[in-house]
Design a protein that fits this description.
0% strand, 59% helix, 69 residues, single chain, mainly alpha
């Protein structure tokens, strides 16, 4: 029905879009150097975050990168 569709549409619009908690600068601040390896590390961390259903925290991701915060 139209009402059910409207409810689903509203739910979809109100659903929070997950924001990846790291940026390249976060890794740079912890001794990584700019370049391809930095991008590859960031991509790997983002894939792990997605695989965790967006539950890994910034601190957990930094730990995965070998950074103890």
């Amino acid at each position: 029905s139209k009402e059910v569709f409207a409810e689903w549409r509203q739910l979809a619009r109100s659903w929070p879009i997950p924001v990846f908690p790291l940026r390249g600068r976060d890794l740079l601040e912890h001794g990584f150097t700019p370049g391809k390896a930095l991008g590859e590390q960031l991509d790997a961390l983002e894939r792990a975050w997605e695989a965790s259903h967006y539950t890994l925290t910034r601190e957990e991701l930094l730990g995965m990168a070998g950074i103890m915060s």
